[in-house]
Amino acid sequence: MKRITGRMGKRAGIAAGVTSLVVPMTIALGAAPAQAASCNVTTGPYQKQVEKFLGRTADGRQSLADCKAIQAFQLKHGITPSAGYAGAITWRTMNTMIQQKAAGSNPNKDRKCPTNKGRIACVDLTRQLTWIQDGSRLKYGPVPVRTGKDGTETRTGLKKIYWRNINHWSTIYHVSMPYSQFFDGGQAFHSTTKSMWNPPGSGGCVNMRPADAKAYWNLLRNGDDVFVYGRKPGT
Questions:
Q1: Residues 6 or more apart whose Cβ sits within 8 Å of residue 42
Q2: In this structure, what are the phi and psi dihedrals at residue 73, rounded to the nearest 5 degrees?
Q3: What is the rounded radius of gyration, in angstroms, for the C-alpha atoms of the chain?
Q4: What's CA 117's distance to the chain center, in Å?
Q5: Where would I find the L,D-TPase catalytic domain in this sequence (predicted)?
Q6: Is the four-CA dihedral 125, 47, 89, 211 of positive or negative sign?
Q7: 110-113: long-range pairs with CB below 8 Å, 24+
């Protein structure tokens, strides 16, 4: 649980409009390590699925070219070890990207997030997505998030934002948490510079890209509902 310190940020005005999901494969995630690890040319358990995702010949057999393509994906998205092996974490990341893209502009198609609460921030742990809706009307998103890892999972259920701090500093993790909006015992929406795909996940908070966290700060306020549901793959 994060200790809440600092002074409460001034509530910003409500922003309007809908932000479409940026296809995660195109997100700029920073420079890859200067030197790649050696390529593992062993065929992985998710070889065919990974090959198909990368637009390669899906024959289910690892080649050096396959390995280098998988390795480039792993390096870009912070997946370790980045040896080009088509393992569970690599496929899990790709499959989540597929689900995010499929969500399009209707992330609550299955109506799992309540539509009778007015303005509410929805967090789908399974697809690693969040959005803001007002009734059934989409106000922002969906956008990718990075939620709690195994052992420090983001807790599910209906919550309310109870404290906001635009320049929060975590005294537990000793990191800056800009645009923090706390909704459950120290768990909060906040900005991070880490990749949304950087495994294994957060300490329980809902990590967001800086622009998305700022938009949430402007759209939400104390007392607004937050609904967290689903289960993050790998937890």
A1: 62, 85
A2: -65, -45
A3: 19
A4: 24
A5: 118-229
A6: negative
A7: 112/229, 112/230, 113/227, 113/229
Q: What is the DSSP letter of 115?
A: S
Q: Residue 92: which residues within 8 A CB-CB, separation 6 or more?
A: 233, 234
**Angle value at C-alpha 163, between 162 and 166, nearest 5 degrees:** 150
- Whole-number Å distance between alpha carbons of 61 and 51: 9
pTM assigned to the model: 0.81
Check: CB of residue 175 under 8 Å from CB of residue 184.
Answer: no
Give dist(CA 108, CA 131) in Å, integer: 9
The topology (CATH level 3) of 106-229 is: L,D-transpeptidase catalytic domain-like (2.40.440)
pLDDT at 26: 35
Low-confidence ranges of the chain (pLDDT < 50): 1-20, 22-34
Q: What angle do CA 64, 30, 166 make, to 5 degrees?
A: 145
Residues with catalytic roles: 190, 205
Q: Beta-carbon neighbour count of residue 162 at 10 Å?
A: 16
Domain boundaries, the chain: 35-101, 106-229
Residues 93 and 49 sit within 8 Å (Cβ to Cβ):
no
